[in-house]
Design brief:
Elements lengths: L2 H7 L10 E5 L19 H17 L3 E5 L15 E3 L4 E3 L11 H9 L5 E3 L11 E4 L2 E6 L5 H13 L3 E6 L6 H4 E5 L2 E5 L12 E5 L10 E3 L2 E5 L3 H9 L3 E5 L2 H4 L10 E2 L1
Parallel strand pairs: 1-2, 4-5, 7-8, 10-11, 13-14
Antiparallel strand pairs: 1-15, 3-4, 6-7, 9-10, 12-13
Bound molecules: glycine.
Glycine binds next to loops.
Length: about 270
């Protein structure tokens, strides 16, 4: 029996309960990945070790982690979150805007076919990166960014509606992806930096503001009652512990050099 059929029978009461994750080992070509951060070039051996620690953190949250082989042809392919949206009812293969990333989706399709009976695809002229999609219960917030365009967002909303879910758009101007600057850390609670702190879109949520100097700390992952946070953000960490969060800190300094956050490095479902 396919995984999605089991998942579909469950209530989608929470979007933080998962059993599986997919990751891709970074290749040596990681050092030529896309970046706007001025933090230097990733050190490959260190990136590999951090990837192992990241996988261990996902396993501590109870996930079965499928580790895909490095794909040297695609320097950014370790950021698997961008190439698919995985929901309890279907998966959606995205259409990354960056030319060097467009081809990453081909290798993800057969992987997802092992888990999903229903797989949809974003079509031209739509572009969409998974990093721009934040799920809160049955609703998906979609960042309109330098990577995700209106056509891509509209297609995703139409697909979600067909499967009984909903979506809406949020402008993203200061950061690469929506989830670079805002992630859900508890029921009705978002950790938000920059433009998302006072965003009208999120006015019904409790907002935990991340100070400008710690903005890379806004990208957290909530999994099975635990919260993954990047190391190096003691203020954010304290704020989350005060909320009663069980934190697991993971050092992803080499991925931050490529504008990558914790969420970017896995698909969780
Ligand atoms: N380096 C991640 C991205 O730019 O897509």
């Amino acid at each position: 029996e396919k995984h999605n059929e089991k998942a579909a029978r469950k209530e989608i009461e929470s979007n933080s309960m998962f059993t599986k994750a997919i990751v891709r080992t970074p290749g040596r070509s990681l050092t030529s990945g896309l970046t706007a951060a001025k933090l230097g070039t990733p050190v490959y051996q260190k990136a590999l070790e951090q990837h192992r620690q990241y996988i261990a953190a996902l396993e501590r949250c109870g996930l079965d982690v499928l580790i895909l082989e490095a794909d040297e042809a695609f320097p950014d392919s370790t950021f698997v979150e961008d190439v698919a949206i995985v929901t309890p009812k279907c998966a959606i293969i995205t259409r990354p805007a960056a030319a060097s990333r467009r081809g990453e989706t081909a290798a993800m399709l057969p992987v997802l076919e092992d888990f999903y009976s229903y797989i949809e695809k974003i079509q031209p002229p739509g572009t969409l990166d998974g990093g721009d999609v934040m799920q809160v219960d049955q609703h998906f917030y979609i960042g309109l960014s330098s990577r995700t365009n209106r056509a891509g967002a509209d297609q995703l909303i139409e697909i979600l509606q067909r499967y009984g879910m909903t979506g809406s758009t949020v402008p993203v101007t200061e950061v690469l992806h929506l989830k670079t600057g805002v992630t859900q850390v508890a029921e009705k609670t978002l950790l938000a930096a920059g433009e998302f702190i006072a965003s009208a879109t999120f006015s019904d949520f409790r907002i935990l503001p991340v100070p400008e100097e710690a903005k890379s700390g806004a990208n957290c992952i909530r999994i099975n009652g635990k919260l993954l946070l990047s190391t190096g953000f003691p203020e954010v960490s304290r704020q989350l512990v005060d909320q009663g969060a069980e934190l697991i800190e993971v050092d992803i300094s080499e991925y931050a050099k490529l504008d990558g956050g914790l969420t970017c490095l896995s698909l969780r479902f």
